[in-house]
Design brief:
With about 300 residues, the protein is of the alpha/beta class. About 35% of the residues lie in helices and about 25% in strands. It folds into 2 domains: about 5-150, HUPs (Rossmann fold); about 180-305, Elongation Factor Tu (Ef-tu), domain 3 (Beta Barrel), CATH 2.40.30.
Length: about 300
């Protein structure tokens, strides 16, 4: 990044920020407020791939957000700079003092660093808030440690949200996120099997190695009109048709328009059921009819809670 833009310093926070849940937003609020107070840019530093993905390359945790979704969300939130260096063997081996001096101070000219109370960094996660506090006077930066948020006895974290989504507990995930779980993407042409069954779908390539959600869901879609559109969605491999690559398919209620190429946001409101392989197409269609009725009923009951983000 051009150092000229950081000549007066910066306010920095570091982490994966996967999902931008209520705990992340508490950090971001502090970062933005401090950057305005000091009159310097706000920076969120993350890594690509994430350290967890780097160390679990064959079975990485499901991402709550793709890189593009995170970039757009941070920009919309008001963060000035999203700094995302590659996490590789060199980054893996950096020691905590070198990370502070080379990356935070010399690289980003950090005047103020905002981190969570569980913050760890550098080789083998050896660095902690104590290291920042120990070096802040000599390196001339301040440290702001933000406590975790506890909701219903659960510490808000991306891991807790992944667990809730894996369990199909959309209510708990929504509480921890502060909004419904969302997946975004561009509508692609599929095999058009749904259309032959009476259920035309908007197909979205997940562009994820693993999905945080699988199954059938009541959803709301934005990006096509000025308001939300109700629908039912399937995330998975369509076992009746033996697909290999997971796909997000959304059937929008009372909607008939050519929307190929459009970029949409799908908010997951409620889990209806897990994926299931059916012995016949007739059984599948009968279940799709039930899923649609269930989704309509769920969404009608929650319509008053509809908000946009």
């Amino acid at each position: 990044m051009p150092f000229e833009a950081l000549a007066a310093g910066s306010v920095v926070s570091i982490g994966s920020f996967d999902g931008l849940h209520v705990g992340h937003r508490q950090l971001l609020d502090r970062v933005i407020a401090k950057s305005r107070e000091l009159g310097v840019p706000s920076i969120v530093m993350s890594f690509e791939p994430t350290p967890k993905e780097f160390f679990s390359a064959t079975n990485p945790p499901a991402r709550l957000m793709r890189f593009r979704e995170k970039f757009v969300a941070l920009e919309e939130y008001g963060i000035d700079i999203f700094y995302c260096p590659r996490f590789n063997s060199a980054m893996r081996g950096i020691r905590s003092d070198a990370f502070i001096r080379q990356i935070l101070v010399h690289g980003m000219n950090a005047r103020h660093i905002v981190v969570g109370d569980d913050f760890h960094f550098a080789q083998k996660r050896e660095g902690s808030v104590d290291d920042l506090l120990r070096t802040r006077s000599a390196l001339q930066f301040d440290v702001d440690q933000v406590p975790s948020i506890i909701k219903d006895g659960i510490r808000v974290s991306s891991t807790a949200i992944r667990s809730a989504l894996a369990d199909g507990d959309l209510s708990r995930a929504t509480s921890l996120l502060g909004r419904p779980y969302r997946m975004s993407g561009r509508i692609i042409k599929g095999r058009q099997v749904g259309r032959t069954l009476g259920y035309a779908t908007a197909n979205v390539d997940l562009r994820r190695r693993q999905s945080a959600v699988l199954g059938i869901f009541a959803v709301r879609v934005s990006g096509l009109d000025n308001s939300y559109l109700d629908g039912v969605a399937s995330v998975g491999t369509r076992p009746t048709f033996d697909l290999v690559k997971p796909l997000l398919e959304v059937h929008l209620f009372d909607f008939d328009r050519d929307i190929y190429g459009e970029y949409i946001h799908v908010d997951f409101i409620s889990h209806i059921r897990d994926e299931e392989k059916f012995d016949s197409i007739d059984e599948l269609v009968a279940q799709m009819n039930k899923d649609t009725e269930n989704a309509r009923s769920i969404l009608a009951a929650t319509r008053d809670d509809r908000t946009s983000s």
